[in-house]
Amino acid sequence: MGPDMATAAAAAARAPQTTSRPLRAWQQAALAQYEEASPKDFLVTATPGAGKTTFALTLAARLLSRREVARVIVVAPTDHLRLQWAEAADAMGIVLDPNLTNAVGPVRAGTQGYVTTYAQVAGKPMLHAARATAVKSLVILDEVHHAGDGLSWGEAVEEAYGMAARRLCLTGTPFRTKPDERIPFVRYEEDTFEGEAGGLVSRADYTYGYKEALADNVVRPVVFAAYTGTSRWRNSAGEVVAASLSEAGTKSVEMQAWRTALDPKGQWVPHVIAAMDDRITHLREEGGMPDAAGLILASDQDDARDYAKIVRRVTGKAPELILSDDPKASKKIERFATGSARIAVCVRMISEGVDVPRAAVLAWMTSYRTPLFFAQAVGRVVRSRASHESATVFLPAVRPLLSLAASMEEQRNHVMPPPRTQPDAELEALDLPPREPREGEMKQWEALEADARFAHVLHGGTAHTGEGRAATVVAPEEEDFLGIPGLLTPEQTASLLAKRDEELRLRIAQSHRADADDFMVVEDHPDEDDAGRSWRDAAELRREINKLVNRVAARTSQPQAVVHTQLRQQVPGPPSASASVDVLRARRERLRTML
Question: Of 72, 164, 321, 536, whose CB has the highest number of CB atoms within 10 Å?
Fold first, then answer.
């Protein structure tokens, strides 16, 4: 036996056979299934927060103790997760080196393996192949869908670990793959959702979904609080367009309204940040979570920096700003996870795998909308520490996100596509975007303003607006338990959020006026006085219409977007955000007849 084999064997002998804490039922079942089959490849799909790391390391410890393998290699998506895996392994008596680089050949003596990243494997796949075959190795591919981020990564993973003794693949949610971009070591089946073939979906050997985890008190129940609002922007033709987040007719208009709402200069972002901060305060003071914290997901680093300034202006306290190109990013994540800061603003650094158990509130201020990213990001706030805890996700009231939120309450074995509420053709026919000018006439797109208002709480696929009968029976003492499962109905929860919304609106208006000179947009109008009166009348009518739509939606158990669509069919015209006063009055009267 060579020195490398002797070192590995000695290290394996020191590995524990069990974890220091009891395994969850799903972990025991998955381990039993693995050991019965003793497979070369095994894919586990377990909802974020369920304990995939503990499962994987327990399996590693057992294989090491029985000398079925002599080395453990973990491949993670990010450098920060390398440290997280190494620390978790160390707590279980497994020494994994998180700092081994491609410049170093052999695995360091005194360790039982190492943690690397997909990018490092792609850099020198043959080096990692040599490490994985020098002794019998268990390769743990964390969030294995990352091997499909590029063809070179998938090819590198296959080249590096094709000859490894054992491979354990982990993911937080099922994933889809194009036929020509298969991820190594994953079994697939045809994607035939709604009878449309052409793609592939992963087939797990063991699946533990969100619903099972919720029933086992492994994860927190999630309350999705949707916020709508009117967005106004100038398109590339120089035309001013206005639309409601929850009423936009076409996908194109919806995306532009969404993009405008997320602009830091508007009022939608500070309003939702204030609601988020209010929720954190409640959890800390009344919800039994004195260390509760929130995460804000931004689309890019510029938005993240601007959002951080807004957090400081609205809350009076600076957030933790975590950016991927910051060399101190990992230390900032660790400081936030173990500290007392209320809010962290990030782009994608905390969207996957990072463990921040005290984070219970998430503000979705990004344009990302894939099922995989949504599940991973929401997974950052669902890890349960006690049975009374719950999570709250604040999000724009747009169809792609509301569909993804609804899908979290359904168990889908392999694929999680957004369910369609109406045929795409019908949606596209509602409101065609204006014709774009020819090349040379293009003007830069510009966000003008956006407001925000509470729309509804999503529960069981139904929008609860707070306008229903259940809202009238909320006793003052019950408000202290907002969000705690079993004590308030979804309608009561919505009622309380709606009640707080007007207070937050005033708070943000005062904060926003302080920066009015920086953000105000002034447009010329030939009849300024008439325009002013018309604008105020229209704004008041829109508020009345939104309240009436909420009541109709609650009474008929229909989504608000469907009620808006029916209203526009019965009273033709542009969306309410840009409709005339006469059209708005006609729609208000029509809604009154529906109650």
Answer: 72
Q: Where are the domains of the chain?
A: 3-215, 222-411+446-523, 524-595
* Whole-number Å distance between alpha carbons of 249 and 430: 5
Least confident of 141-145, 420-424, 466-470: 420-424
Q: Which fold has domain 3-215?
A: Rossmann fold (3.40.50)
- Provide the mean pLDDT of the chain: 77
Contacts of 71 (CB under 8 A, 6+ apart): 8, 107, 112, 113, 131, 132, 134, 135, 136, 137, 138
Q: Report the share of the chain in percent with pLDDT over 90.
A: 32
Tell whether pTM > 0.85: no
Burial classification of residue 318, based on how many CB atoms lie within 10 Å of its CB (0-12 exposed, 13-18 middle, 19 or more buried)? middle
At 312 the three-state DSSP class reads helix
557-575 pLDDT, tens digit per residue, is 887 778 888 888 888 887 7
- pLDDT band, very low/low/confident/very high, at 27 (cuts 50, 70, 90): very high
List of residues 6+ apart from 66 with CB closer than 8 A: none
For 13, 437, 445, 524, 530, the CA distances from 239, given in Å and listed in that order, are: 72, 11, 10, 13, 21
Q: Give the residue among 71, 231, 219, 220 at the shortest CA–CA distance from 140.
A: 71
Q: How many residues does the chain have?
A: 595
- The backbone torsions φ and ψ at residue 35, rounded to the nearest 5 degrees and listed phi first, read -70, -30
E-strand ranges in 311-390 read 320-322, 343-346, 359-365
∠ Cα 394 395 399 (to 5°): 150
Question: Max Cα separation, the chain?
Answer: 92
Q: How confident is the model at residue 153 (pLDDT cuts 50, 70, 90)?
A: confident
**Residues 144, 135: Cα–Cα separation, whole Å:** 23
Whether 3-215 shares its CATH topology with 222-411+446-523 is answered: yes
Number of Cβ atoms within 10 Å of the Cβ of 356 = 18
Confidence of residue 90 (pLDDT cuts 50, 70, 90): very high
Q: pLDDT higher for 188 or 289?
A: 289
Cα dihedral value 549, 555, 558, 561, nearest 10? 0
Report whether pLDDT(175) > 50.
yes
* Dist CA 334 CA 358 (whole Å): 12
> CA 118, CA 128: separation in Å to the nearest integer?
11
Tokens linked to 314:
């609205």
- Rounded to the nearest angstrom, the gap between the alpha carbon of residue 84 and the centroid of all alpha carbons in its chain is 20
**Coarse DSSP helix, strand, coil percentages of the chain, rounded to the nearest 5 percent:** 45, 15, 40
pLDDT for res 28: 96
Q: Which CATH number fits domain 222-411+446-523: 3.40.190.10, 3.90.1150.10, 3.30.70.100, 3.40.50.300?
A: 3.40.50.300
Question: How far from 556 is each of 244, 458, 470, CA to CA, in Å?
Answer: 21, 15, 15
